[in-house]
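In line with agreed milestones, the collection of sequences with tokenised folds has grown. One record among many is set out beneath this paragraph:
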Amino acid sequence: MLAAGGGVELHLHEQLSEKEKSLYGVEWARGSRAMVHSYEVDSVESLLSVVPSDSLIRGPLETPWGTRLIIVSDPDGHLLEFRERTK
């Protein structure tokens, strides 16, 4: 985590391995400036009931770093990650 304040956390992540790219459905080219906006929520399950099925890209997924997440695409194609802490 780079910074936290006012209820907002900013995380920087290492480049994903090929296995992680496949698992999470990320198709960015090396060096891409593409971004996934990530938001912490209380319950991924509650979001699943309102997310249109054609917007769900991946998930729910359990990560080794203690979160459960879904990745959705908004109408403009931006990727949004919603995650809840499990640890």
Summary: Residues 34-87 form a domain with the 2,3-Dihydroxybiphenyl 1,2-Dioxygenase; domain 1 fold (CATH 3.10.180.10). The chain has two helices and six strands.
